[in-house]
Structure formats: structure tokens, C-alpha cells
Design brief:
The complex is a heterodimer. Chain A is of the alpha/beta class. Chain A is built from 22 helices and 10 strands. In chain A, the strands form 3 sheets. In chain A, strands 7-6-8-5-9 form a 5-stranded mixed sheet. Chain A has a 3-stranded antiparallel sheet with strand order 3-10-4, sandwiched between helices. In chain A, strands 1-2 form a two-stranded parallel ribbon. In chain A, strand 6, helix 17 and strand 7 form a beta-alpha-beta unit. Chain B is of the alpha/beta class. Helices cover 40% and strands 24% of the residues of chain B. Chain B has 10 helices and 10 strands. In chain B, the strands form 2 sheets. A 6-stranded mixed sheet of chain B has the order 6-7-8-3-9-10, with helices on both faces. A 4-stranded antiparallel sheet of chain B has the order 2-1-4-5, covered by helices on one side. The longest helix of chain B is centred in the last third of the chain and has 23 residues. Chain B is globular. Chain B starts with 7 loop residues before the first strand and ends with a helix. Classes of the chains: A alpha/beta, B alpha/beta.
């Protein structure tokens, strides 16, 4: 508990940055959603027989899980970006703001569309008939009579949409957009519950405040003679947005973009890279919690300049290789492949591997007499295995099955965060652990040997984007890291940010790691 | 009570109307000529096609076949929106715009016709006087009005742009009998004073007989009889019309007997 105050002030230090980006994204998405909904609403009202089709389309979009919708926009925009680049010579960044903006505005459309259409259809038929009878055109009837009368229903839709967008905007973090979701994603990974709470509370408060502001606007608009007040309120909102835009623009320092996937080791390494660049006098910004498939694409497209990936990931996911040659061969092949296909560069291995390994509790392994996966295989029909969200669908898992004849009673997916505890508590018999995770030692687990070399090597490597592949300043700043981080050092740093007591921030773990590498003495 | 013989203001010529290609006809070859400055009551059972016939005249409904002429011109060739601005329209639902003041409701058509502001303001006061409402009402919103007041505002709105023709669909249906009687009489006086041509749908035979110069009786999409009110009262050609026309007299006698007994 004594850690609460510093953690809170750490978290609040990011608030202007995260909140500003969140407000700007949500407001833009809502405005774009309104902008797109207006003609669609008109179309639905004009061709009432097809209104169901338009509303149905919006409903289908709503059923797509928000995270998937956000992620789907990245490859789509990437295609578009390369198309515009080949046509006009200038592309745009497909990472971050744009995919988030598009996905969120699509999301906001259903409540706006549905309420606009039902609100206008619900206007008293006698009033509509009177308007036409008095000689109004259908358009005049819509603008002067139907819209004002449907306003409460339409505003209710806009308010629903705003709450929806503000909530869903927290999910834009994995596509590289800064938002209040940064608190939640990294907080969950490092078990920093203060961060998680700050993110949730800030998003909820923002949603409430915006809802109240919209309610106020509505009451002003409905009040008579409130044109000036309405104009004043709209101007105030526009000013807030401009301020946000200026702040966001100020925030986006030009420089190197460092990427990180969404787990503690990546945060530490991103922080380490950031500190090295700063020490070399280079500007940089970090995008944490990027999706694992997205980040490689972002690097090759130049949206991310540098990040740490693992040879085995590129070997299986990108190169679609199923063989497992020796560690140095895989490293060479991966380096050659990214250079030939994308012009990207593997600067070198950091020195440790973060491979999938099967881990068990030491006492359990000993009582069963299990030392390797081969020993485990005949016992597997009576055992339960836990793993992260992707392992059971990955080719390595199928290859393990085939090579050793594994056939577990049950395969349970869980948050990587909880699986070490789950195996330590005996909820599952084995887990697919990560070899550099500090919790293997913390929970007294043993890792099982892979005598048939089924799992490819997962050497941590520094990747540079095509644009930065020969950037001398960048290379000389990062060169001291190559080959300097052995698995013990990485496990220690990982444990420091994920243990329950005396937990460090990724940045301070990175500083400690650097002291160890550079021989500057330990702070522990 | 009889209108002077002039050119017909409205001519309906062999009009047929169906709402679905395979369904029955709501109007079956209706022809009706309404002379300028006359007051015609349109009566008949529910579903006989009265409202459809009325809405053909301001093109809220288009005929399937046949022509409608207003002041000599085939309305199919005129702009429907401009036509409606020349014709007053009052109906049972009134349909006052609930978010606009009484004055804004009344001035809707003059505003659409781009009258200047001071002329509209003068016209609103004039109309409130004409329909016998206090001028102080002009800033009120419709939901705060009584049923009778709302009907009078509806009437003022219909008359605002000085139309020559007024179409009324059960205009006084939703108010109490005393208010209804007063509204009817006041309107008839306005009709005469302003030289209007009026077609009014009414279910109430007493009202029709007392207000109209001519009565048209409809049944199953046809006009079964159309003539001077006095002629229909004394010499109806159809039995159904005879029964209908005797209603006001019989009711008056019954009321008289009851009054005599007490």
C-alpha cells in the first residue's frame, strides 16, 4: 500500500497525454460518424422500404468485436496507403489514428442512424400532413418540422454513440493509437492495478462528462431564443477540440518511433531503446501494446522504426517455415529474408531467447519422473495444460503434438499473467511458458527439454525499418545492446516489473538492466 | 344561401383511385363541380372515399385516372407545393406544429411565400381577430391551448395566405357541441365575408344542413347524390339519401317532443 502514492502520481503524469489523445480521437470519430450518418439517414427516410437494409448493415458492423474491427482496418489502410504512394508518391501512416478513427466512427453509426430514423418516423402523422398541406416541400418539412420534433430521440442516439465511442476508444491502443487504453493494457500486463483503475475511471468520467455536455446542448437547443447560447456552446466545444488538436500535434515529436507488443518484456526493451536514443540525443516516441501480427507490418511499412521481435515468430508467422534448423541458421535466414523482402534490417540478437517452453511444478515433475516433453507424452491424456491465447492455434503446437504424440485431457486458454500462478497452484498440470519469464524461477517451475528440437529458436532481435536500416545515429546508439542481454538478466528484469512486492516500472527496470549491461554496478 | 352561378372553382372529372394495383377502387369515376364561392358539404359513411376525394384537390393524393381542375387549370400540370400554398387545408387532427408559437404556426404559408416580416405580423393579428382569439395568444405554444382554441388557430393558419379555396376534413370533430356550433357559424360568416369556396367533410348531418349550400352524399367510392341542400331535403332521389336527410328533422322533432314533455 505504501506504493500507492508514487504509483498514482506516475499514472497521473501520463494523464494529459493519454486523455488529450483519447478526447481528440473520440470527438473526431463521433463527428465523422455524424457526418456519415446524415446522408444514410436521409437515404433510409427517402427509400423507407430499404431503411431496414441500411440499419441492418449498421447493426452487422456493431456485432463485429471492436478489437477485431480496429485490427482489420490496419491491413486495409496499409493497402490503400501503398496504392496512394504508388499513384501520388506520398503515402500516409496506416497506424494509430486513422484505423482507430474509421473503426470508431463506423461503431458510432448504428445508434445515431437508428435513433434518427425512428425519431423522424415517429413524428405525429397529422403534423407532417399539416406541413405538406401548408405548402412545405418534403425537404422543408424535414428541416423545419420533423428534425426539430425528433431532436430528443436523435440526441439520445448521439449520446449513446458518444459513450460507446469513448469506451471503445480504449481498445485503440493495440493499433498504435495513444488513448486511456494505454493505462489498461500495460497495467494489466504488469499487474499495476493503479494504472488499470486510473484508465477505467478516467474513461468512465470522460463518458459521463461528455454525456452531460450533450444533454446541456440539447436543452439549450430546445429552449426558445437560445440561438446565441447554442452558438456560444458550440464555439466552446470547437475551441476545446482545437486545443486538443494543438496539444496532440505538440505531443507528436518528430523522431524515431519505437514499437512494443503488449507484454512486460517488450515494455522494458522499448524503454531501454528509448533511454539509449535519448542518451544519444535522439528524439523518439513509443507505441506500446501493438498487436503481435500488426507490429511487423508496421515496421516494414515504416510506421514503426525499431522494435524487438523473436526469430521464431518471424520464422513461423511470416516465413511460414515448419522446419527447425539450428539457432544461428534461423537467425541468418530471418535476417536475409527481411532484407530481401522488405529492405528491413536485423541489427542483431540481444543474447537471450524467449521461446515457448513447457513448464511444470518441480515437485510434480519429479514425482511423475518427467524431464522432457518425451517423458510427458505418455502421461498427457490424464493431464491438463494451460496456455496463452494463441499457442493452441500455432503451428508449433501441432508439430509438438505430432512429434511427441501429445494428447492432453484439456487445453485451457488463459491470460499469460495468470498461467504461472495457475500451474503453481495446481489448477493445471503444465503450461506453455515463455523461457525468459522471471516467474519460472519465482514459482519454482522446471522447463521440459525438447529433445526432438520441434520448437524453433526464439532469439530476441532488434529490427530496423527499411527507412532506418542504414541510419548511423540509430545504429550506433543501439549497438551496445547487441549480444549483451542473457536470459538471466532478462528474467531478472521481467520479474522486477511483474512481482507483487517492490514492483518496478518498465523504465526503472530498463535502467537497472542497462547498468548491468554496461557494468555500471547494480542498484539492487 | 345559394351561390351565384359562376365558373366552377373545382372540377373533378371521372376520377378513379386505387391504392394497390390488384385491390378495389376507393373512388369509382367520381365527377363533381364546385362553383366559386359556394359551400359544399361532403357526407357519407366511413370509408366511402370522402377524405381521398378531398386530398385529390390539393394533391396530397394523386388520382389513378381522371382529371382535377382548380380554377380552370388541370392540377396534374401544376406544381403541387405551389398549389397547396393557394388552398387552405384544415383537418380534424389540426396538426399544429408543437414546437412553434401560435404566431409562427399561423404565418407558416406566408413565410413560405416570402411575405415581408411586417406584413406577416399584421396578418397574424388580423387573423387572430378574424377567428376571434385574443392577440395575446400569439406567443403561446400549441400544447397550452384548449381544443377550441387549437381549431381556431388551425383555421387561421389555413386562411393566412388568403386562399380562395378551403378544404376541411371534419374540422370541428374534436370539440364539444357548443364550441362546435360556434366554430361552424363563425366559419360560415367568414366564408361569406371573404368570398371563399369551401368543401367540408362532415359526419354530422345537422351541421351539413345548417352550413352548406350544396351537399354531396358519397357511398362506396361514388357520389350518389349532389344538389342544393333544400332540394336534397325535400326531394331526395335515393332511399339511402332520404333516410340520411331526414335525420336532422327527426332528431329536431324528438328533441322538441322531449322539451314539450318536460
Amino acid at each position: 500500500m505504501e506504493q500507492l502514492a508514487p504509483r498514482l502520481s506516475d499514472a497521473l503524469a501520463h494523464l494529459p497525454d493519454y486523455l488529450g489523445a483519447h478526447v481528440l480521437l473520440s470527438a473526431s470519430a463521433l463527428l465523422l460518424g455524424l457526418f456519415l450518418s446524415a446522408p444514410l439517414s436521409l437515404a433510409a427516410l427517402r427509400w423507407r422500404n430499404h431503411a431496414g437494409l441500411i440499419l441492418g448493415g449498421a447493426a452487422v458492423i456493431q456485432t463485429i468485436p471492436s478489437l477485431a474491427l480496429l485490427a482489420l482496418f490496419y491491413p486495409l489502410l496499409l493497402l490503400l496507403s501503398s496504392a496512394t504512394r504508388s499513384l501520388t508518391g506520398a503515402g500516409f501512416s496506416a497506424l494509430g489514428f486513422l484505423p482507430s478513427l474509421l473503426a470508431l466512427s463506423l461503431y458510432s453509426m448504428l445508434p445515431i442512424l437508428r435513433n434518427t430514423v425512428t425519431g423522424i418516423l415517429g413524428v405525429d402523422a397529422a403534423v407532417k400532413e399539416a406541413a405538406l398541406g401548408a405548402g412545405m416541400t418534403p425537404f422543408q418539412t424535414l428541416i423545419k418540422i420533423e428534425l426539430p420534433l425528433a431532436l430528443p430521440v436523435i440526441m439520445a442516439g448521439i449520446r449513446t454513440a458518444s459513450v460507446l465511442v469513448i469506451g471503445t476508444a480504449t481498445l485503440s491502443t493495440p493499433v498504435g493509437q495513444t488513448s486511456l487504453g494505454n493505462y489498461i493494457f500495460s497495467g494489466l500486463q504488469t499487474q499495476n492495478w493503479v494504472d488499470v483503475l486510473v484508465g477505467c475511471v478516467a474513461a468512465a468520467l470522460l463518458a459521463l462528462v461528455v454525456d452531460r455536455i450533450l444533454a446541456l446542448l440539447e436543452s439549450i437547443a430546445r429552449g426558445r431564443g437560445g440561438r446565441q447560447r447554442l452558438a456560444a456552446a458550440s464555439t466552446a466545444i470547437a475551441l476545446i477540440l482545437c486545443a486538443g488538436a494543438v496539444a496532440a500535434d505538440f505531443r507528436s515529436v518528430p523522431g524515431y518511433v519505437i514499437g512494443a507488443k503488449g507484454f512486460p518484456e517488450q515494455y522494458i526493451l522499448a524503454a531501454l531503446i528509448d533511454q539509449r536514443l535519448t542518451a544519444a540525443g535522439l528524439n523518439s516516441s513509443t507505441r506500446n501494446d501493438l498487436g503481435s501480427a500488426l507490429i511487423f507490418r508496421a515496421l516494414t511499412a515504416g510506421d514503426v522504426d525499431v522494435y524487438v521481435d523473436y526469430t521464431g515468430t518471424i520464422w513461423t508467422n511470416e516465413m511460414h517455415r515448419r522446419d527447425t534448423p539450428a539457432r544461428n541458421i534461423v537467425l541468418e535466414d530471418v535476417s536475409a529474408w527481411v532484407r530481401e523482402h522488405y529492405g528491413a534490417r536485423v541489427l542483431g540478437p540481444l543474447g537471450f531467447e524467449n521461446a515457448y517452453v513447457l513448464a511444470m511444478r518441480r515437485d510434480k515433475a519429479e514425482s511423475l519422473g518427467v524431464r522432457s516433453i518425451a517423458d510427458l507424452a505418455p502421461l498427457s491424456p490424464s493431464l491438463t495444460v494451460g496456455g496463452d491465447y494463441e499457442i493452441f492455434r500455432r503451428p508449433e503446437w501441432q508439430q509438438l503434438h505430432a512429434a511427441y504424440g501429445l494428447d492432453f485431457k484439456d487445453e485451457r486458454q488463459m491470460q499469460p499473467l495468470f498461467m504461472y500462478k495457475a500451474v503453481a497452484d495446481g489448477d493445471v498440470d503444465a503450461i506453455t511458458a515463455f523461457s525468459s519469464d522471471g516467474r519460472i524461477a519465482q514459482y519454482g517451475l522446471v522447463t521440459l527439454a525438447d529433445p526432438k528440437n520441434v520448437i524453433p529458436p526464439y532469439d530476441a532481435i532488434l529490427l530496423l525499418s527499411p527507412r532506418r536500416s542504414n541510419d548511423r545515429a540509430l545504429i550506433s546508439a543501439l549497438h551496445p545492446l547487441i549480444g549483451k542481454i542473457d536470459v538471466e538478466k532478462m528474467r531478472g528484469a521481467n520479474l522486477a516489473v511483474s512481482r507483487e512486492n517492490q514492483q518496478s516500472s518498465p523504465a526503472s527496470a530498463a535502467r537497472d538492466l542497462w547498468r548491468e549491461i554496461s557494468g555500471g554496478g547494480s542498484s539492487e | 344561401m345559394t351561390a351565384s352561378p359562376t365558373n366552377p372553382a373545382i372540377e373533378i372529372d371521372e376520377v378513379w383511385k386505387t391504392y394497390s394495383p390488384d385491390g378495389g377502387f376507393v373512388l369509382c369515376g367520381v365527377s363533381l363541380a364546385v362553383e366559386a364561392r359556394s359551400f359544399v358539404a361532403l357526407t357519407g359513411t366511413s370509408g366511402s372515399g370522402k377524405t381521398t376525394l378531398l386530398k385529390l384537390i390539393n394533391r396530397l393524393i394523386e388520382p389513378s385516372r381522371g382529371t382535377v381542375r382548380v380554377e380552370g387549370a388541370d392540377i396534374a400540370a401544376t406544381n403541387a407545393v405551389l398549389l397547396r400554398r393557394r388552398i387552405g387545408y384544415v383537418f380534424q387532427g389540426v396538426g399544429l406544429f408543437p414546437h412553434l408559437t401560435v404566431a409562427e404556426n399561423i404565418s407558416i404559408t406566408p413565410t413560405l411565400l416570402k411575405w415581408d416580416r411586417s406584413a406577416i405580423a399584421r396578418r397574424v393579428d388580423e387573423l387572430l381577430d378574424l377567428v376571434q382569439l385574443p392577440r395575446a395568444l400569439n406567443t403561446r405554444l400549441p400544447p397550452t391551448l384548449s381544443g377550441g382554441q387549437a381549431q381556431r388557430v388551425g383555421l387561421a393558419r389555413a386562411l393566412a395566405a388568403k386562399p380562395g379555396i378551403v378544404l376541411m376534413d371534419e374540422p370541428f370533430g374534436a370539440v364539444d357541441p357548443i364550441t362546435r356550433d360556434a366554430l361552424g357559424r363563425d366559419y360560415r360568416a367568414l366564408h361569406d365575408a371573404l368570398g371563399l369556396t369551401t368543401i367540408m367533410i362532415s359526419h354530422d348531418m345537422m351541421e351539413a344542413v345548417l352550413l352548406a349550400d350544396r351537399i354531396a352524399v358519397m357511398d362506396s367510392g361514388e357520389v350518389v347524390e349532389y344538389g342544393e341542400t333544400a332540394d336534397l331535403l325535400s326531394r331526395p332521389r335515393h332511399n339511402s339519401v332520404r333516410r340520411l336527410m331526414r335525420m336532422p328533422l327527426e332528431q329536431a322533432e324528438r328533441v322538441g317532443r322531449l322539451a314539450g314533455l318536460s
